[in-house]
């Protein structure tokens, strides 16, 4: 399994990216290809014992910056790490592509260079979020601010295939993120999507459990949360913010008094596990579902550990059979 | 200050409602009027030492149920506690109305019986949510699933006046809930609203700080979070779900081992405070902003403590000068 890594994307590129990618090299049969300014990549690698002989470095002289227009950057910067890496993915020179670069630029480039699976209208971002039930796929959460019924229905299928193949769930429970449980709730988009998903459920193609509210979703009420990219992003960022806020309050609590400080020492290890559960680096990346080859977006602030995990996730997605399921469904 | 309380609304009516309202009677100069089936109200009151002489009970023979059509229930059930109570509010027989009944029915009834302030297009639900910065007004969070630029701009003013008068903030920082910080982020609705709010900021009418993401909002990045009712509701319910999920994990953590149990005993009081901070009953209710008289919606699951707090909140809103500010702004 060969994973192509954008060495120039993200706040901590190239140092942390190269470090994380090298850590994954050789594990689970993973072979790494680093794409970026060769001189910078090699000097970053030198800080961590040098680039091993088995790791290929592909030179790409340009870097897509956050200020570049996401929709067109990959065209204007034909020698950027994203453009070069995705062209390699398309040409079959790797099995998946990992980047911590601009989400918008990566999405446009993946859509226009690697292309969507035939029949898929829009690719979607689908992070796996922690819930009281374990985890759930949240699709879409930012790629498509404005959606149609068809997009949402496709997201439901994409999320369901992903949950089956990547999270190994037999009949993933698909819920439509809404502001009430009844079919009549929400805006026209939700009401019409509800009917379409209900029909897909009746045909046995989806395990549609109906509308789901944010609260029930966090409690683990379903395995796939279907949303337009706007509300999904609000949900994702609210979870991040709430976890950070509550984590901070818990931290303050253990500093409130001498007694509390003692308690803090007693539960130190458990607190670390608790923090780890909420650590966005644990999974590392978010797959772009609907693209014809695996493209994994890592957090812009990714450090080495997050990149390493994103590489493992890329390997899991690439070997899961997920894309074959999507192709088979839409080829009918 | 006379507060009219819907004794029949909510999951725990009339028992807990009557109990909570009676607990607030006489405090801060509050006088309670209970509206509902007189026999049921009096027998509920009997369980708590009887209805005091100063508390008026107004008979209303009908009850709006959750299965009634929210848009028309108040018309078909003219003798329901919501219809009777709101007509009393309109007639000046009380200074505010508190109900734990159906949000939709209460909103329709308040809009059509008590009316909006002249010039206001839509009333909005505006709960005060806890953030790392203290608190923030989230407007709208469920009354209007589909919004226009004009609605959102009005929500910004309503929320700002509310934060000034009720939360006592001098220049409330108004943020537009969005999926990125730049003015170009989000859908057309957000892009156009951004421009309108920027202009209101330049005129010195609002302290508009720009777009705000869910994460930054939870960190306390602004005092008024402006949203359509759909995304706002997703945000609110996600906070509730995340708090419940994380609270549950913390609870589990303190049961993991004997050592952790000891730690749990040490921080018992602090944990209670932590839980209290997240307790939705602490504030008790959510004001409907834009209605010409104070209408407070309490949680459907409200117990006596939540109702008591909702009554205090009604008193605060009614004496705050908030509605006068709104009237003055839109009379220009």
C-alpha termini separation of chain A = 29 Å
Number of strands of chain A: 12
Structural class of chain A: alpha/beta
The helix-strand sequence of chain A is EHEHEHHEHEEEHEHEHEHHHEEHH
Instruction: Tell me the overall shape of chain A.
Output: globular
- Spatial order of the strands in the main sheet of chain A? 3-2-1-4-12-11-5
Beta fraction of chain A: 15-25%
Q: What proportion of the residues of chain A is helical, as a percent range?
A: 40-55%
**Quaternary status:** homodimer
Q: Biggest interface between protein chains, with counts per chain? A: A-B, 56 and 56 residues
Quote the average pLDDT of chain A: 94
Which residues of chain A sit in consecutive blocks of at least 5 with pLDDT less than 50? Answer: none
Major sheet summary line of chain A:
7 strands, mixed
Radius of gyration of chain A: 21 Å
Total number of helical segments of chain A? 13
Protein model, in words:
The structure is a homodimer of 332-residue chains. The first copy, chain A, has 332 residues and is of the alpha/beta class. In chain A, strand 1, helix 1 and strand 2 form a beta-alpha-beta unit. Chain A has helices at 15-24, 38-46, 73-76, 81-90, 103-114, 149-165, 188-202, 214-218, 229-253, 258-266, 268-278, 304-318, 322-330, and strands at residues 2-6, 31-36, 56-59, 96-99, 124-126, 128-131, 134-139, 173-177, 207-212, 224-226, 285-289, 295-298. In chain A, the strands form two sheets. In chain A, strands 3-2-1-4-12-11-5 form a seven-stranded mixed sheet, sandwiched between helices. In chain A, strands 6-7-10-8-9 form a five-stranded mixed sheet, sandwiched between helices. The mean pLDDT of chain A is 94. Chain A is built from 13 helices and twelve strands. In chain A, 45% of the residues lie in helices and 17% in strands. In chain A, helix 6 (149-165) crosses helix 7. At the A-B interface, helix 8, helix 9, helix 10 and helix 11 of A face helix 8, helix 9, helix 10 and helix 11 of B.
